[in-house]
Amino acid sequence: xxxxxxxxxxxxxxxxxxxxxxxxxxxxxxxxxxxxxxxxxxxxxxxxxxxxxxxxxxxxxxxxxxxxxxxxxxxxxxxxxxxxxxxxxxxxxxxxxxxxxxxxxxxxxxxxxxxxxxxxxxxxxxxxxxxxxxxxxxxxxxxxxxxxxxxxxxxxxxxxxxxxxxxxxxxxxxxxxxxxxxxxxxxxxxxxxxxxxxxxxxxxxxxxxxxxxxxxxxxxxxxxxxxxxxxxxxxxxxxxxxxxxxxxxxxxxxxxxxxxxxxxxxxxxxxxxxxxxxxxxxxxxxxxxxxxxxxxxxxxxxxxxxxxxxxxxxxxxxxxxxxxx
Length: 325
Hints:
This protein is α/β, with parallel strands linked by helices. The protein has 11 helices and 9 strands. Helices cover 44% and strands 18% of the residues.
């Protein structure tokens, strides 16, 4: 346990969830931690909570700054980090007590550039006990091409959380300020600069999906970052036809997801409509695509408005199920 792990936690107006998050970090079986809490201009009691825990545990360092957003807070954490490894935890989430231990063991035993694990979504105010979920504990190791394939095909998540990075990757872990879906370009840049990645099937990270963040169907131009970042990756991949097709399929998913929320009054309506029709062809080359996904893409290539209607119905049904959890 001589390796130091810097845990970066951006904090903004999460007083309801912050105790749970910090307590789960302090309960880690891996104790050589550098815990960095970035108070990003909170207007509730979050800042005071950070200071309270810093007074209880010398491993915690708190930095207060004016509100700059999630990317700004993470980037500040990167600057302040002292560890051999870097982990990001969102302040409304929490982790299993062996989260860091297992990720460190995996990255060292396999000689990987970063390790990652599965995660569990937590809805509303529900919580889980701290028992180890029954998952396959076998460690899978991938080269750069293989991990790109699994992430582009959405078999593995592209989120910054649920991962432990070697500190040598910090130059590539610069999150874009003022953007949403900021994890996508950042993690992709990391993937382009690693040789080996390992994955643990255990669900060790608990991601809190708050109801107020998923029932809002209003479209804003900011949401277009989901598609723009996917298109950046699509345009970047030109030397591998299979990965290029997977990236195109991901663009279709992003375009359709936004198209289901947009209206004819939105400035991005025509762009999204054309994108849905254009990228649909790449889903047919996506060997990971489900039958329903393939069917919708075929429909979208000819009748994007009908595909949008079906997508809206599916999304409403899915959200209703989530709200009931």
